[in-house]
Write a structure and sequence with these properties.
This is DUF1513 domain-containing protein. It holds the Pfam family DUF1513. The protein is mainly beta. The chain has three helices and 30 strands. The strands form eight sheets. A four-stranded antiparallel beta sheet has the order 3-2-1-30, with no helix packed on it. A hairpin with a 4-residue loop joins strand 23 and strand 24. 47% of the residues are buried.
Length: 374
Amino acid sequence: MQPMAINNQRRKLLKSSLGAITLSPWLTACSSAPNSDKNAVLISCSRTANGHFGAVVADNEGNPIHSVPLPARGHGVAITPNGELAVAFARRPGNYMQLFNIKTGVSYPITPSMPNRYFYGHGVFSSDGLTLYTTEGEKETSQGVIGVYQLQGTQLIKVKEFSGFGIGPHEVIRVDNMTLAIGVGGVHTKGRVPLNLESMKPALVYLSTSSGEVLERVGLADHKLSIRHLSLMDDGRVLCGQQYRGEPEDGVPLIAVHRRGEALQQLNAEPEEWLRFNHYIASIAVLGDHVVATSPRGNCYGVWNLKNKQLIEIASLADASGVVVNSRDNLLPQWHISSGTGKVITRSENGEMVSHQTNVMWDNHWSQIPPTVI
């Protein structure tokens, strides 16, 4: 299936699903007053039926508490470890990031990209919450940059950059206080049009947080597997979800796991099962011995057993978007899985599920708010 056909299919799914939902004043206004009766648990970027965009603070079931308007489509959200502030990043190739207060919904002045830079949709705070690391790229070359920003009051001030690790970085996570992991997609683009598919060099790269030195770099045998989305496991291993840039009929593995000093190991499924994900993994989250990965293009999510690396289930979910593990409030840890049609699924590791319908068109990623915010 060609990309344009995929996009049209997603639009039709969203339109038909939203037709049965009554849009609330919150959705059409794109902002709201905080609801103090609910606990803030989740944050995601969103889209609205009338063409607006926002970052949504939601409760445990995905019901919106308040939202922050965004000037264009957002993507990932970074949260300070104390749970007070968050930053929503523009979808690549983007030109803004928006800092806001999680508890009040108050937003602060937009931080624009530098004239010769794009934001690539993701970032992560240091453990003390004073430094923000963002994925960026040079406009003309897509050479990767990690922007390093200091949080000064309610301003993000760029203090330095790390570069020289590859083309087209996407998600960045903090492995520990001294190490970042970056999904380097390897794709040079003009806007969103790829220009170097035959020569792309994706990689999972580890950088020093202090110097930007490349500490380790690993890749996959198939150079058209663009490494994009990451998740950190409790034992320090990193999971990465891929976007395949090869032939439409190829059913190739889209998820791999990495332990420092070793090779990437791919998770297993049959080729026809991999094709169900339509060559794209959007979000990935680990709970115990299992991983859930979503695919909005495949309208599904998958569950793998990490002990034997085998796929155990593919579940249909129209425009499957974000997934995050909620381990708050003395509850058993569970996945929260969102959809662009507003559906929110809460799922335990043993497979028990509860489904909620919200009035939010969730975008590709969810972040859990630390329990310090009440």
